[in-house]
Amino acid sequence: MRDNLVEQIISEVMNKQTDVSTNKKTAASFAGCGLTEFVGTALGHTIGLVIANVDHQLHEVMNIDKKYRSIGILGARTGAGPHIFAADEAIKATNSEILSIELARDTEGGGGTAA
Fold it and tell me: What is the pTM of this model?
């Protein structure tokens, strides 16, 4: 009798867990991420940023096509060559494009970390 009670409780808990996880998946599938996200930092004072759901005013200011819904920005004070090479490899591996490359003027007050 006790085993039957334990089995019944476990089955009820499992049914409730299944219902809750199904509801969360459907709600999350309709919700879009509209947040600006800090991706991270790396060597060479590199900072990555993703802007999801780009506003139409930003399209106009940056002079980019309206088909781009999200943009990624990579900034660095030094090491343009390695950063461009890494971006090229990432573009080849994903469904994305490089819209613009601008080189840093700062280089940490001289030749950067290479000097």
Answer: 0.52
